[in-house]
Write a structure and sequence with these properties.
The chain contains six helices and eight strands.
Length: 146
């Protein structure tokens, strides 16, 4: 636990001498609870995630409609359900066979999630899409584009 915090603190002090960027393949709660956000922003902390935090922009039609209907912002589970359902409906509407839409090498993206399905060797499909996310100097999390 202290290792992550100590390493981030030490790297933060070295950034005036070196150009340092902190990466992880396993972002867990330690980064949020043990490491000051300013360190993460200073180090352009970058990590992989299956979903991104949505922009609570009131212009987003889904967020706007949800707030009107329920009086609060949708949580991550509501948004995940919306994104999965919308993806399935649009795939079914555009292809006569739903499974045909899954084998295309195509990524779809909605409010907070993206989808790119691959066939498993033993049967079934899995979502192979991930985001590369990064803290910026203003302590906002942004998606890193390829």
């Amino acid at each position: 636990m202290a290792t992550v915090s100590n390493a981030a603190s030490y790297l933060n002090t070295l950034r005036s001498t070196f150009d340092i960027q902190l990466f992880t393949s396993n972002k867990n709660d330690l980064y949020d609870s043990e490491v000051p956000s300013t360190y993460l922003g200073n180090l352009n902390f970058t990590y992989a995630a299956i979903n991104k935090e949505y922009n609570q922009d009131p212009l987003d039609e889904f967020v706007k409609m949800y707030r009107e209907d329920y009086g609060l912002s949708p949580n991550q589970y509501v948004i995940r359900g919306y994104d999965v359902t919308l993806d399935a409906i649009l795939r079914k509407a555009n292809f006569s066979d739903f499974y045909e839409s899954l084998i295309l090498d195509q990524t779809t993206e909605y409010v907070e999630n993206q989808f790119n399905y691959n066939k498993k060797l033993i049967g079934g499909y899995f979502n192979n899409a991930v985001y590369i996310l990064q803290y910026n100097k203003e302590l906002q999390i942004q998606s890193v584009k390829n």
